[in-house]
Amino acid sequence: MKICVTAVAGDLSAEVDPRFGRCKYFVFVDSETTDFEAMPNEAFNAPGGAGIQAAETVVNKNAEVLVTGNVGPNAFQVLSAAGVKIATGAFGTVKEVVEKYKSGGLNKAAEAPTVPAHSGQALGSGVGGVGSGRGGGRGGGRRGGGRGRF
Q1: Is the pTM of this model over 0.70?
Q2: d(CA 119, CA 53)
Q3: Tens digits of residue pLDDT in 35-74
Q4: Which residues does residue 107 pair with via DSSP β-bridges, in sequence order?
Q5: Dihedral through CA 115, CA 94, CA 15, CA 116, nearest 10?
């Protein structure tokens, strides 16, 4: 069985990356032989749609199972439609979670996303609060032409 594990590096001793869409690596492990193939997640820095892109990668590599920490609703939908089983709540090394999955120690069939929908990376384009320094008021100041002249 081909198992895909989200990881922070590309080997069996790497820690599981709990973020599916923005994980650093996918490690595809043959559960029978423990042979593996690692590949960087190309959606890691995507401004939006990282979960969908990551899910398409997993599907295109013919993984039967995804083992990760969390998965969002869009990725969940793509993976489920392709018949990929999703095991969530994983932590430890890639090798450990593959063994846990095989022995039934992980949530083998997530039935819903584990994180809510959101949109892209928080790139910070909002407006800050009103300043509290000089010039922030409505009047013209002590000698100005605004209200409350001295």
Answers
A1: yes
A2: 14
A3: 999 999 999 999 999 999 999 999 999 999 999 999 999 9
A4: 88
A5: 0
pLDDT given for residue 106 in this prediction: 80
- Ordered alpha helix ranges (H), the chain: 50-60, 73-81, 94-102
Report CA torsion sign: 46, 47, 51, 52: negative
Residue 13, both tokens: 């001793």
Secondary structure (3-state) at 139: coil
Give the pairing of strands 85-87 and 65-67.
parallel
Delimit the domains of the chain by residue range.
2-102
**CATH number given to 2-102:** 3.30.420.130
> Contact, 64 vs 86, CB < 8 A?
no
Record the tokens describing residue 78, joined without a space.
């793509």
